[in-house]
Structure formats: structure tokens, C-alpha cells
Amino acid sequence: MKEEWRYIVTKGLNASKNMAIDRAVLVANSENKVPVTVRFYTWDPPAISIGYFQSLNEEIDLEKCKELGVEYVRRITGGGAVFHEKELTYSIVISENHPEIPKNILDSYGRICGAVIKGLKNIGISSNYAPINDIITNGKKISGNAQTRKLKTVLQHGTVLMDVDVEKMFSLLLVPNEKIKDKMISDVKKRVTSINQCLGEYISFDNVSSAMKKGFEEEFKVNLVSGNLTKYEILLADKFEKEYFKNEKWNKKR
Amino acid sequence: MKGKSVYKIPNGKLIKINLEYDDETNKIINICINGDFFAYPEEAIEIIEKELIHTNLIKEELEDKISFIIENKNFEFIGLNPEGLVKGIMMCIK
């Protein structure tokens, strides 16, 4: 009998809600109130998330965000700034004592990325894990990932790029030297790809998510069973949204 | 005095350090370590920033202190290491 994990898809939620839900599921799982959970989600409106250790004012052009209707949020995970627009974002919440999760942090990144790699394979893209936290195909990045461990629980979330607009991304991010911005844009174009670019055709979010769902099931030999957030998680998420992700004090804390 | 550095750690991540220091006593007044690295737990960086206040801006002393905190408290860094951190700090000094 295969282990059953909870599977949740949320579409149309904004940055602060998405980050609050990831944290709420982590807390609920650490209290044994909910099973291992895999969630796939989108960002509406588009948003930039910055890593826990990044300085908001040093990374993001806040005026430009406002102008283009792009939100911003500080994650509880480390890593870099990410522009979330045309992508599938996944998150997995699992106890750090689960037998499928390596104790070594870098190994556990690789293991969870294994599910994304299998998911990409299901739509015909072969890729591999590139430590520290990327997945690459043909030498180009298609997924970035970030993990935190709190309350003896692992939360890893990451992006699977469906399409990428490097110019728009760079108009929102601050670069240390404006003179080399064009060079940076052309470098990133060479180093980053997306599902659409790889396949030369448009694949819907639903198709990507079903391929990814299968990828997680294959990697961890489990069944993902559709479920919903519990009332407890929804309340926690509301609380975290107010306390952290919607709060300027949190977003501007570094 | 205030100083700033941006340093890409070899095989690691980019760190951006803002340093305030006393150029007479050569001690740290305040430090902020930003970047796209990972630290477990995340609070490790805030703890190190606090512990570094009043520390002498001497490479060996900084390295010993940071390494001691990491070992003592069982912190784990990914994409960051004490040597890189100290290099970033020393680059802030004019």
C-alpha cells in the first residue's frame, strides 16, 4: 500500500497569501495535524519574491513594481530574488524525520528536485539537478528551488518556468551597475529557459501540474490525493499574512 | 566609518555586506550580511551579526569567531562559508 500525501492546487492567489499558506502548512504538519503536502500554485498578480537574507531596497525597483502592478514579498527561505509570472510554483512540506528525506540538506534538495525532474520528463524535457538549488536542461536553468527547516519540518518551494520575460524581469530588479544591464540581460537569456522555449509550444498550467504531480508520485512512490487546506491552516495563513508577508516591517526588515 | 562590499563566494553565492566600524579602534559597530545564500536555521545570520559587534577587524580574529559560533551552535551554511564572509567584511574597509 502506497503512502498517501495531500495534493493541493491553488490558482489566483497573491504573493502574501501564497507565502502565508506555505508557512501555515509547515506549522500544521509539524503539529501532526495534516499529512505530507504537495501544493502547486500560481501568483496573481505577478510578484517578485526575495530571499530571506536579501535587502528589499537593494534588490527591487519598488516604483517599477507599482507601475507594472507587480507585488513583492520576502520569503522565509534563503536564495535569490525571483520574478513569478508564467510559472508553476510547487511547495512540499514534510517532516525532516521522514525516511524519504535525507538528513543532509543539500542531498534533500537533490531528492526533492528529483520529483521536478521526473515531472519535466513527463512532458518531454530531460533535465538534471545543478547544486546548490537549480534544475537545468541543456545547460540552462528551468527551475530554482529554496528550502527551510523549521519545527523539525522541511519546506521546499521552487519554480518551474513555463515562460520567461527577461526584459520585464530586469526592469523590476535592481542591478549593481546600470552600464552592464544589457550585458546581464543577454547573459540571463543564454542561461535561463522555460517549458515553452524547450518545447516550442504552449503547454497549459493544468498539463504541467498533472505532469509534476506524476513526477512527485514517481519520485517518492506515493499517491497524491487531492485535498484542501484545513480551517486551522486557513486561520494560520491569515495570521501569518498579517504578521509577516503583508507587513512592510517584515518585507523591509533587511 | 561606513563601508559596503559585494562579493561572489567561489562556488557559492553572492554576499552584500554593509559595515559600520570605528576606524580608530578598528572594531565593528554594526554589520548587515545580505545575499542569496542559505543558512540553517535562518536566525544564524542575525545571531552572527550581533556577535560580531565590537569584534576587531582582523581577518584571523573574525574567522575564528565566526567558525566558533557556527560550530558551537550547530549552524549550517550553504553557498556561504566563514572565509568568504570574512573576505566580504574586509573588503568593506577603506
What is the name of the CATH superfamily of chain A?
Bira Bifunctional Protein, Domain 2
The largest sheet of chain A, given as strand count, sense and whether it forms a barrel, is:
8 strands, mixed
CATH-defined topology of chain A: BirA Bifunctional Protein, domain 2
Q: What strand line-up does the widest sheet of chain B have?
A: 1-2-3
Total DSSP helices of chain B? 3
Strand element count of chain B:
5
CATH architecture descriptor text of chain B: 2-Layer Sandwich
Give me the CATH architecture of chain A, please: 2-Layer Sandwich
Descriptors:
heterodimer; A: 254 residues; alpha/beta; BirA Bifunctional Protein, domain 2; 8-stranded mixed sheet; 3-stranded mixed sheet; B: 94 residues; alpha+beta; Enolase-like, domain 1; 3-stranded antiparallel sheet; two-stranded antiparallel sheet; 5 strands; globular
